[in-house]
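Continuing from the previous page...

OK, I double-checked the sequence for MSHA biogenesis protein MshI against my notes and this is the correct one:
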Amino acid sequence: MGVGLIPFFGKRKRGDQMVGVAFLRAGIAVARVVRSRSQPPRLTLCDFRACEAHEYGAVLEELVKAHRLKGLPCVAVMEQGSYQLLQMEAPDVPDSELRSALRWSIRDLIDFHIDDAVLDVFDLPADAQRGGSNMMNTVVARSSLIKERVEKIESSGLDIHAIDIPELALRNITSMLPEDGAGVALLAMEHDQEQILITRQKLLYLARNLDVPLLVEDLADSGDEFISAEQQQLLDTLILEIQRSQDYYERFYAQPPLQTLMVAANGSSISGMTSYIAQNMGLATSELDLSSQLPGIEQFEAEKRAKSLMAIGAALRIVQEES
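Thanks. Re-ran it with the corrected sequence; updated C-alpha cells here:
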C-alpha cells in the first residue's frame, strides 16, 4: 500500500538500493536502504540538513553529491501542509473511471482549482467498510507543487520513482515493529508539530495531526526523568489527544485495546515524558528504537536518525513491498 503522486511508468530500480528524501519544515533529510534476498533491509545512510523551503533544491544537490547518490532510485515524501488527505466514500464506478469521479467529488473540498489537482488513493482497512459503504483515502496535492518537487529531485541527479506522504512513510516504520501485529501507536514529533498514527498488521488505521501548542524542546529531559509542572500541563493536553485517537481506533474499527505507544522526538531525550505518559495512560510507552529491525541504524547518532525518520520510511517503502 502506498501513494504515488507521480506514476511509475518506465521506472525500474537500479540494483538493491533505494533512497528516501523527506521535505520537512525544518530542512531536508535523506536515507539509503540496501536490501538482499537473504537479509533484512539495511540502513547505510541517513543525513539531515536544516534549510528553508526555497533552499530545498541547492541543499538536496549538496547531499546527493556528498553521499554519491547520483542515479539511484528515490522515493520522496511531501512536507506536512502541502497536500490534503481526505476520507471519502468510493464512487460506484469502474476502476478505470475512479479518479475522474473522485476529481468531481473533491472539487468543493479543496482550496485550489481542481484543474491544478493531482490525486491518488489508498484503501482503508476492511474494518472500516460498514453499512455497505466502501470508504477510501484520497490524497490531493497541487500539481504545480508536485512538478516543482520532481524538478528539484531530478536536478539533484536522483531517479525519482514516486512521491509519497508522511503518513505512509511512518506506516513503513511501524510495520517493522513486532508490536504492529497486535496494533501499535506512534507519536511522531517534528519540532513544532505532532502526529499520531495507529497501525496494525501493516495497515494504517488512523493518522492525525495533533493541535497541541508545544515544541519537542519543551518536553526534553534536563538530565533525569523529572517532569516540571509546566511540562505536566503540556503532557496532559497531549495525552488527551492521544486518548481521543485511541478511543476512535478501538470503537470505530472494533479493535482490542492498544497496548503500546512509541514516541519519536527528533533525538531529544524524553524518558521523563514517556514515563509520565505510561503512568497516566496505562500504555507501554517507550522511545522508538529500530536497532533490532533495521541493521545499520545503530551507526548513526540519535538526533540524525530521528530527524531522518521520514526519509528512512520512504526508502523502506519499495524495499518492503517488493521483497
